Amino acid sequence: MGSTRNYNSYDSMVLEALFLKYKVSKYYIRQCVNGSVQGITADAIKKDYSKMEKANKETISNLIKKTLE
User: Fold this and answer.
1) Which secondary structure element, helix H or strand E, spans residue 30, and what is its range?
2) Distance, CA of 26 to CA of 29 (rounded, Å)
3) How far apart are CA 68 and CA 30, in angstroms?
4) 6-16 per-position pLDDT tens digit
5) Count of alpha carbons within 13 Å of 13, Cβ hemisphere only?
6) Scanning 2, 12, 20, 32, which has the fewest C-beta atoms within 10 Å of its C-beta?
């Protein structure tokens, strides 16, 4: 059998927000996040992605907690 490749899954809402902020393709954003692209903009995109993804996960966690109360 062939080898199975694992693909990273990216938060689509965060990708959309970065797409609107930086006016670059979502493909480029994914490359920046996974480290394929180097540079000042790539670093900024990677940092923003991390911050936005963390905030998004916290928001979802808080919503789940509130619905379980």
Assistant:
1) helix 26-34
2) 5
3) 34
4) 677 899 999 99
5) 9
6) 2
- Structure confidence by residue, pLDDT tens digits, 22-45: 999 999 999 999 999 999 999 999
pTM of the full structure = 0.81
Tell me the three-class secondary structure of 32-57, residue by residue. HHHCCCCCHHHHHHHHHHHHHHHHHH
9 secondary structure, DSSP code: -
What is the rounded CA–CA span in Å between residue 26 and residue 32?
10
CB 32: neighbour CB atoms within 10 A? Answer: 24
The first and second tokens of residue 50, run together, are 């991390």
